[in-house]
Amino acid sequence: MPTPNPFHQFTQFLLLALLVGLESNLAQGAQGIAQYGKPKYAEGFTHFDYVNPNAPKGGTLTLPNPGQRNSFDKFNPFTLRGITAPGIELMFESLAEGSADEVSSIYGLVADDIQVANDHKSVTFHIRNEAKFSDGSPVLAADVKYSFDTLMSGKAHPRYKTTFADIKEAVILSDRSIRFDFKNNNTELPILAGTFPIFSRNWGKQPDGTIIPFEKLAFETPIGSGPYLIESFKAGKSIVYKKNPQYWVNQLEKPLNLRVGFYNFERVLYKLYSDDAVRLEAFKAGEFDALVEYRAKIWAKGYVGSKFENGTLLKKAFLNHNGAGMQGFAMNVRRPLFQDPRVRQALGYALDFEWLNRQIFFDQYSRINSYFTNSDLSANFDGPHKPTDAELKLLKPLKAQYPQWVPDGVFGPMPAAPSTKPPNSLRQNLRQARDLLMHAGWQYRDGALRNEKGEPFRFEIVEDGGFFLRVISSYVRNLEKLGIQVDIRTSDFALHQKRMNEYDFDMTTVRFQDSQNPGNELWDRFGSQAAKEKGSDNVIGIQSPVVDALVDSITKAKNRDELRTAARALDRVLWNSYYVVPQWYNPTHRVAFRKEMRYPEPPLYYSAEAWIMQNWWKEESK
């Protein structure tokens, strides 16, 4: 199942004193900023509330391959081709970093000060004098500009160019001062400017002075400012990171608040296993320290045995407040088969969530009901109701201008996902699906559902591995009752990712990254331009002027109320366009771990893998 990119975590920073430009356009510098209002932590705070500032240091954290990745062929996480080694984000930092217990605030990391212009058309950072790369060279404004310009070029993954499209340019003011100019007023842009990864201009430099082109960097050791270095690796099998003994944070006069209670292990070792069953058995055999489980059945039945009974191994579901976003079977609307919304809606009636939850998931899940599930940004967060006046102010003009792109359903209460709870039933749902398909020109004859040309309704579902086969098989059985023919194809992670990058699929499972404060990443996920660029998150292929307009409203929101209004309007349009057959979510992280592992209370918003790596520690046996 697709997982969010691990290299795009928000990083926190301090506001820089801008000594260049018009005095009337200067804002007061500070240690942190918030997109709306003020950041939670005041000037001079010592550490985040959710860490253990006295966590012991040392030892080795051994982890399995995250997600479905079972190999790697590069260290460069910023290019489109290839599979990146797990944990490589440990080597990179940014000007700023965000906290995990508030929405969209950042604090200074590589930067010790930042200043947002009063007209919000630019932001300026000052780089700490102590900040250094892993090769000992100083982090300078020229490196920050090089990183930004490289990510915005054709050499890097196209998602960067889409996400940072509203940043006009990076301007070097001095060796350690850099300003980012914006194309428009977007309250998220100062945060985006502070949180992209920074790397050295010398990454890939050869002894003879030549530099390997960025897009061709593979196993050349990254030069970043992060806390860890690569100690050793076996290509595609394992990789070991060790603490950088010259890590610049350790050279500061006092502990850096953003790093107190973070990165407590001397080494981090990733072992990559061939499949999920092997990985679970390896955990039971004591080959690694912690495992995040995403499959309900395995969590219920696989994490058992003598070591769990005697307390050598533990399992716990940790509550989180992450927005659940959207997960579901996504249709590639670039395919003619899925361009009729009635067809897409019909396919949604064939998924029997209640049966799956009862028979396969041990009733651990709730149904996805929005593109912003489990968040106040959802159009049905406080119950199904019609759009508010503020939402209508956005939707009505778009309906008048683009009537075919605004479904009539957006003006009513948000419809629930199809259900088989009584008085509903699968049989009733399939009848509704049949009627929708008939009106779209598909009728059952000669042993299959066919269009007017006699062509059968047939498509392929692709997945990265076989762990989802029971779910897919159940869904396919119901589709077959409608006369639809479905081929199921599974492949390893690398081949699947290549197909996703090329949009070479009919239907697949997607998981759109959770966000408490969505912004420019929505251009990459739903924007028309992204649909035309290989490797974007817009795997669905949405090219809607209405969606573009509502994403623009989200990115230009001046406060949380405006953001909520625009997000709910977008939610209504996407939901009623039936691009995805919604699946399910769980508001907990399921983690199994060795008894020696220790952890602080979890923050509000977090990924389990990052939390373990950043904030856990190990109590060595006496």
UniProtKB/TrEMBL annotation:
InterPro entries, A to Z: Peptide/Ni-bd, SBP_5, SBP_5_dom
Segments forming domain Solute-binding protein family: 106-530
GO CC annotations, alphabetized: ATP-binding cassette (ABC) transporter complex; outer membrane-bounded periplasmic space
SUPFAM superfamilies reported in the protein's UniProt record: Periplasmic binding protein-like II
GO molecular function (one): peptide transmembrane transporter activity
Keyword terms: Signal
Any Gene Ontology biological process: microcin transport
Signal peptide: 1-29
Name the UniProt record assigns to this protein: Extracellular solute-binding protein, family 5
Provenance organism: Polynucleobacter asymbioticus (strain DSM 18221 / CIP 109841 / QLW-P1DMWA-1)
